[in-house]
Structures are given as structure tokens and as C-alpha cells.
Amino acid sequence: GHFNEILIDDFWAQWCHSDHDVELFNDMFGLSLTRGELMRAIRNNDRRILYLWARYSATVMLDVSENFVIKPAKEANRNVRVNLKVAEWREDFAHRGLVLSKLANLFDSIYIGTESREGTEQYNSFLITEYARAIVGDKLKGVWFDTFNGLYSGVIISPNIYLRQLWFSALTTIGEIVLFDAYSLTLENRARYVESVKVEEPVIKGIYSNQTMDKLGILMPAIQTSGAVFEKYIHDYLGMVGIPIRPIDPGKIKEGDYVLVTEHLIGVMDVVELARRGVNLVVTSSASELIAEGALGYDGIELLGLAKDNPLLSPVIDVLYFVRGSHTYQHMYRRPQASPIGPVLNVTSGKVLLEASDGVYRYPVIYVNEYSKSRVYVVNVTKYAPYLKDYYPEVVRRTLRDIVFEYIGLRVDPEASFASNFSLIPYTNRHLVVYNMNNHPINAVVTIDTGKLGNVTNAVAVGGRGSVRGVEGGDRVVRIRVNVEGESPLMIKLT
After folding, report:
1. Under 8 Å between Cβ of 441 and 484
2. Which of 12, 347, 357, 456 has the fewest CB atoms in 10 Å of its CB?
3. Burial, 127: exposed, middle or buried (Cβ in 10 Å; 0-12, 13-18, 19+)?
4. According to the CATH classification, is domain 5-208 in 3.40.50.2300?
5. CA distances from 436 to 26, 288, 442, 443 (A)
6. What is the CATH number of domain 216-408?
7. What pLDDT sits at residue 122?
């Protein structure tokens, strides 16, 4: 009864696979698995068992949250606010029983962890907040992150990634950012982190005042699933090469939208019906492989424009170069020449946008098929995400940006022959942010389709660090040349 507000840290999840849990799980679903059999099924990505375990975990979490946390707290102090903070590992929420829509009905508010650990893609600090907002709406009250690197217990994070956490948190237009925790920030080895936040604060406020809650991007259905293997956190990698992702309530998807169909959605969402409704699909590697293997039946085969008798030629091949039109592309400077790509599909209809070659044959890796009232883009370049981000030649990433540009009428491309570690965040009020996460500055070109975004005669830098170097173009397409300093965002206003 002493506290009027409680904030629960992200330890609050269903971590147990004990014998007792297995017994309850078996009783719930009429199974007779041993603990060893259950753990093997989970390790082997048995989709049925993963789905059932997620249901079991959700039941446990909801029961314990309501009856052992919220009710006792309200009995002790009827005015107490009990808030739940969940972690940054969104791909494991379902397995751990964290069904956000249901937990939001129990707790007074939800906070999201925006930690970007060493060795991960920092775009998650932005995306997870947008993802949670699409699920819980106004119940999302704030975010928090700490100074730990996530690789070793008690070891602090590098200063630049700490600031990326801060910036991506702020760029979501969230109402509250919590720096965890007060004690650790008083320690001598954290002084530079505190000082860096003080330096960034006025810059953040300058950009924040021009942000909107609504943003543009290719649509990511905000559905909680588990079991993705190759494409776990693929959205984060896409966000790190200038492809904006916009999580959305699936019920709000409408005709003409472009929806990213990843491994997560196959068997969970009726993507064939989406296409029949006139929703355009961008189907990733592992999703197309599942479809080619028969996950959606013959409807799925037709959706992708594949041969019915032998739709999947190979799950992966090694290629030497890519082909677009009459040009070939390799990225060889101090990098391996060959790259894995897959799957290789037996395509019988559609327009090929990008091919790859092993030196003998050419294989379509990005193509578009017309199905019902929709366009179905198949982008078989996402299965090996680190290669997509850092090893494939720039033409691969540019071709992906071509597709998103068709939808939102906005893109950013590096002037260099290769670049990654930059993000595009477009707001709906004709402001956009290009965030450069490289240590060095980058020159880039922002391209605007005025038919989609309206007339643009000029562009000005209104926040962050960098400059607008020039504006050129005509009635339909405008190009804005920008320079963005290292480890900095730049906000541009279109006028």
C-alpha cells in the first residue's frame, strides 16, 4: 500500500519448461509428451508444438498476472497503477506467453524495451515500439533501455549503440523515455553516457517537435507468432538498409496496400485472400520456400507463378554475380565473391526484376507476378540476412527499394556503390529522417514521387546533423541530395 505506481521489469515472462509445466501442457491439449520430447520439438521448430506451447504460456501468464500481481496490488491500494515493461526480443513474445493485446487489458499501461544489444540490428529499437503500438494502441506509455551490452553480464554497451537506442526510441514519437537505471547512471564509468545524452537532448527535442505518430512504410502485420527460423528479425535487417517498415493492425489493411509477407505469416494469415482483395504482396525468401513446398496448396503455387509439378528447384545455391537488364553486378572489394541465395523457384509467369548467376545459369531472385487484383513481388534475397545487409552488391538493396518506392513514393539511396547501416523514417507531415549509423558521413539521394506525396519545390534541413546539398527534378520526380554526418540523424522538411 506504500506505492501508487509499480513498473514490472521484463523478467515477467513464462520461462519454465519444468516437468510440472509439461504435465499441465499435456493435460491442456490431450498430449503425452515427455519433457525431452517437448524440448526436441521446440528445438526442431515443430510449428504445431510451438503454437500449442504459446497458447499454454499465454494461459499461465494471464492467470499469474491477474491473480498474483494485479488483484493483490489493487487490494492493497485501489489507486495503484501496475505497468508492465516487456523486453526487446519481440520474436519470442508468443513462446514466453506475452500476448500484448491481452496483457494490455490487464495492466494499466505497457512499456517496451528498446535495448539494442551488441551484435544486433539497432532498427529494432524503433520497430518494436511501432509494433507494440499497433497492437496495444494508447496503452503504450513509454520505452526504456539500459547501458548493458547483452553479451556479457554486467559489461557496458558501446557509447554509439547506447545513443542509437536513445535516437530510435525518440524517433517513434513516444511520450516517455526511461533511462534505466538511476543508480547505474551515477557510476563513474557511465559519466560519458550521461554527458552524451545531455548533448543530444536539444537535438532530439528539435526533431521531436516535427514528428508525427503516423509514419509511412511497407506494411508489417502486427501479429504475434513464433517459429521463424531463417527470417527471425528480418524486418530489422531491412530497416538497416533504408527500407521503412510500418507495423499495422491486420484489420486495417486495405486494397492497394503493400504488405510484407515473411516466414512468420505463412499458415497464420490468409495471404492468398489478401491478394484476392487487391492487396499487393512482397513475399520474402523463407515465405516463398514454404509456399513452394505446398504450405498454401495450389493456390500458393499460382500466387507465386510457379510450375505445379516441380515448383522448388533448390533451397539454396551459390552465385557469383547478379544481373539486372543488360548489366552485371558483383561486390568483390575485400569480400568473398560468391554468395548464397535461395530458394531457387521454377517460375513460369511474371516479370523478372533481378537475376543471379552461378556462372552457368541465371536464376530469377526478384520478380513480380500478377495474381487476381494484386501484384505479388517475390524477393528471394532475405534468407541470409547478413548477406543482404553487408555482402550482396548494392543493386539488390536498390531493387527492394524500387518496390517500396512504388507504394510510398519516397526512397533514399546512397551515392556510393555500397552502403548499409542507415534508416529512413518518413512521417506523414512531409518530414523525414535519414539516420546514418556509420562512423563516417554519407552522401545520399532522397527521391520523391510528387504524384504520391504532392508537389515539392524545395527541401530544408530542420534538425539533426547534416545538410541539404541540392534539389533537382521536374513535375513527377524530385531528387534531394543530402549529407548526413556519422552516427547522426538528419530531418528534412519537404516544401
Report:
1. yes
2. 357
3. buried
4. no
5. 50, 31, 7, 10
6. 3.40.50
7. 96
Over the stretch 352-410, which tens digit does the pLDDT of each residue have?
A: 999 999 999 999 999 999 999 999 999 999 999 999 999 999 999 999 999 999 999 99
pLDDT at 1 (0 to 100):
66
**Per-residue pLDDT tens for 111-149?**
999 998 899 999 999 999 999 999 999 999 999 999 998
Distance from C-alpha of 459 to C-alpha of 314, rounded to nearest angstrom:
47
CB 435 within 8 A of CB 489: yes
Looking at residue 138, its pLDDT comes to 97
Task: Please state, in angstroms and as integers, the Cα–Cα distance from residue 49 to each residue in 17, 26, 39, 150, following that order.
Answer: 13, 11, 10, 29
Q: How far is CA 17 from CA 9, 324, 401, in A?
A: 21, 50, 42
pTM here is 0.96
SS3 of 467, please? strand
SS3 breakdown of the chain: % helix, strand, coil, rounded to 5?
35, 30, 35
Grid cell 496503452 is found at 139
Rounded Cα distance, 30 and 41, in Å:
16
Q: Where are the domains of the chain?
A: 5-208, 216-408, 409-495
Average pLDDT taken over every residue of the chain: 96
Residues 6+ apart with CB under 8 A from 427: 210, 211, 212, 214, 215, 216, 433
CA geometry: angle at 148 spanning 174 and 146, to 5°? 25
* CA proximity to 122, closest of 156, 56, 166: 166
CATH number belonging to the domain at 409-495, selected among 2.60.40, 1.20.58, 3.40.50, 2.60.60:
2.60.40
In contact, 135 and 101? CB cutoff 8 Å: yes
Helix (H, G, I), strand (E, B) or coil at 461: strand
Contact 193, 181 (CB under 8 A): no
Q: Is the peptide bond before 343 cis (omega within 30 degrees of 0)?
A: yes
> What residues contact residue 93 under an 8 Å CB cut-off, 6+ apart?
86, 99, 100, 224, 226
pLDDT tens column, 218-264: 999 999 998 788 899 999 999 999 999 999 999 999 999 999 999 99
